[in-house]
Design brief:
Blueprint lengths: L2 H16 L3 H4 L8 E2 L1 E7 L8 E3 L4 E8 L10 E8 L5 E7 L4 E6 L5 E10 L5 E2 L1 E10 L7
Parallel strand pairs: 1-9, 3-10
Antiparallel strand pairs: 2-4, 4-7, 5-6, 5-8, 8-10
């Protein structure tokens, strides 16, 4: 694993452990580069609409990324992470941004409240990385996917 990837995975673990969104972690100082915007949603099961899932049920975490001017991001990548309270997090996947969208498949392996977080890295110079998160409650009913 390259040094860049190790630092990005470490950043995701810190974000997930803190369970806060990036503006609190990555707020630029006055005169710093412009900041993009990221929001997350879950799709793939009937329970995704209410941020609920069951152990082993696959969902897709989707990131919508906007440039500082509000237009869809056209370059960069998003790292997705999963974290349970009191346990370390893990990298779910990395996806290139396409017309403001990036996604990764996620299947929870334990019941509890999972923080799903994402960090957007823009390839353009002068744009700060941003992160966002959402909380999913995973029920202890393995395979009860709807």
């Amino acid at each position: 694993m390259s040094g860049s990837m190790i630092s990005r995975v470490a950043a995701g673990a810190v974000l997930a452990a803190a369970t806060v969104t990036a503006p609190a972690l990555l707020t630029p100082h006055a005169g710093a580069a412009a900041e993009s915007n990221i929001s997350l949603s879950m799709t793939g099961s009937a329970m995704a609409a209410v941020n609920t899932d069951a152990v082993g049920c696959r969902q897709t975490v989707r990131a919508m990324v906007r440039n500082p001017d509000g237009s869809p991001a056209t370059n960069g990548s998003v790292d997705f992470f999963s974290h349970l309270s009191g346990l370390s997090g893990n990298l779910v996947g990395t996806s290139r941004v396409n017309n403001g969208n990036a996604s990764a498949l996620w299947s929870p392996d334990r019941a509890g409240q999972h923080v799903i977080s994402a960090i957007f890295y823009n390839d353009a110079a002068g744009v700060q990385p941003v992160a966002g998160s959402t909380v999913i409650t995973v029920l202890p009913f393995p395979g009860a996917c709807v």
